[in-house]
């Protein structure tokens, strides 16, 4: 992208790019319900469906941030409600470490969000996307390491 | 299809009538998608799920020699099975199908932003195309089913299921921790809607079960160990007294572990006077001409019931549910006892005699002049012991008056709650529990007797509070599921399982602790031993693949490569379309 084009985009009001990981059984279904219920939320997030949040390797999130995602959302079943019994707890454990590490690596922790939203919590899912988009807008476009 | 074969992807963008096309510029999406890597055909269509849409896929697969199909339409949770079937009919492996969600995740939730919605739709299709290019055909696997069902809990549900299955010609192992068959119902003197007592209902079933050559009955026993996968479980059952253990090969399991009646300490003076009892305790009083007071064994002339005790308490965990049996059970007991008593009073928040024939019981009670009095939800009756007499004070909603009654016996219709050892049972069979504490079905409406653990069914009050008739319906349903599984003799298992690349495995055991199902063990035939996935036990969550520090675990159909390709397609499409990876 040329410098000129970039300036133009910025002037048009910059919209953050958000990548979301949703587990198939709770949050992906919650996002489906948000649609079915016609709950309107910011169109910034692109959802990748995984079977369980336990499937999400922290490397995926790092890759997304490295490739220019301004924010990453991970949304899964509530602890205790995991379709696979405990995959979400494994994610939560990884997240605790990841959250600390990412800040030390110089990335604003407002760019990442872990939330629990069940298949019936469409509003919670939508609100989560909105919250992250707002946080990321405050933080501004992600700074790439070579910039 | 060999790995070397170049992906030839067909993209089908669905209008879903006005649902998607009303917001998303579907023609533009189809046009842009035609330029994505490996896409050889791209179009838009009014309804992809309609016969014409399905036929279109089949025709284009043939015409363009497509080996991958991407449909961008509704949620894959809705129509992925439909389109997987279509591509199979078109001669492709079902795992070579990919779906982008443009309706629930785009058009319906960004209705006022058509521009941004179209942009999002293009991104999602690009991501799906990238993933499709990396999809691999997976073999469809089947395993044999052991023709024997384990039924845990020999109450009315367990007995019904056992007889149904045995009569259909399959083996049953019926286990109960109690020393007798029949569960709670065995003790009850007043059953509804018919006029029989618990033993009258149960005894013929128990007799048949005892005589049945295909039913192995193990009372006073518990399942100690349980392992395996659908069609091929192993259960170790122990006699509680002797400690003797027996092992069984099991194809399917029905969990009918039931409920426990709530002991309402702290409610309405329970425990403070011997004549304040629960409905379950009243039901166990020996049937005779007169009902005697538990305190002094004199004839009781006045009785009162209070409904919803420990049920429908909003905000109190495990007590929010309606226990479903109590309204009709109270009406039945009250109606029966009215013939022997001077006064029978029922205090209630609301009455729900919803079942077939239950309203008749309610009407019968009223016709016998059982007094029904409604108290306000926000102001519960108080129970005091005054001069040794049970004294109930309450506000009658309809009379708008404070009333007092001194019954000889006060009966509390208490909630059905899960048995104390339910967590143990949940762990044993990998079951999850819902807010009421009972086991979760696979789907509350569409799959109420199967669970998320394939091959394991639930029936009766193990699933939720309910009455005996409903438990029997469940039991027959679960038995039918078990029989269907055993009669087929084999079952297809998911191919989306994880696989260990033994060359990369560093024998660290991380995956073994990560797996929620104990599906991974160490293959000792290797030196050093490496992790090995028992595919039939794997549920496909992928937790092991994410946990493996050596990248030695491949989660089929959700590989690292497939996921990373979607991330790249979204964030770095230029390099993607040039076919290169991002540096």
Q: In percent, how helical is the residue content of chain B?
A: 25-40%
Identify the CATH class of the largest domain in chain B: Alpha Beta
* Poorly predicted tracts of residues of chain A: 1-8
Strand order of the largest sheet of chain B: 8-7-6-12-23
Average residue pLDDT of chain A: 90
Radius of gyration of chain B: 31 Å
Q: What fold name goes in the CATH topology slot of the largest domain in chain B?
A: FAD/NAD(P)-binding domain
User: Rg of chain A, please?
Assistant: 16 Å
CATH superfamily of the largest domain in chain B: FAD/NAD(P)-binding domain
Q: Find the count of extended strands of chain B (DSSP E, 2+ residues).
A: 28
Number of helices of chain B: 16
- For the termini of chain B, the CA-CA separation is 30 Å
In terms of DSSP E residues, the strand content of chain B is 15-25%
Multimeric status of the protein = heterodimer
Q: Outline the biggest β-sheet of chain A.
A: 4 strands, parallel
* Secondary-structure class of chain A: alpha/beta
Number of E-type strands of chain A:
4
Helix content of chain A: 40-55%
Q: Give the CA-based shape of chain A.
A: globular
Main sheet summary of chain B: 5 strands, parallel
Task: Map the helices and strands.
The complex is a heterodimer of chains A (147) and B (583).
Chain A: H1 3-11, E1 18-23, H2 27-36, E2 45-50, H3 58-66, E3 71-76, H4 87-104, E4 112-116, H5 122-139
Parallel strand pairs in A: 1-2, 1-3, 3-4
Chain B: E1 9-14, H1 26-33, E2 39-45, H2 51-64, E3 68-73, H3 76-89, E4 97-101, H4 103-107, H5 114-133, E5 141-144, E6 148-152, H6 156-167, E7 171-176, H7 198-211, E8 215-219, E9 221-229, E10 232-239, E11 245-250, E12 252-255, E13 260-261, E14 276-278, H8 279-284, E15 302-309, H9 326-338, E16 343-348, H10 358-367, E17 371-374, E18 382-386, E19 389-396, E20 401-405, E21 409-414, E22 416-417, H11 422-428, E23 456-458, H12 468-488, E24 490-493, E25 498-500, H13 510-514, E26 520-523, E27 530-533, H14 543-547, E28 553-555, H15 560-571, H16 573-577
Parallel strand pairs in B: 1-2, 1-3, 3-4, 6-7, 6-12, 7-8, 12-23, 14-21, 15-16, 15-21, 16-17
Antiparallel strand pairs in B: 5-24, 9-10, 10-11, 13-22, 18-19, 19-20, 25-28, 26-27
Helix pairs in contact in B: 1-5, 2-3, 5-15, 6-7, 6-12, 9-10
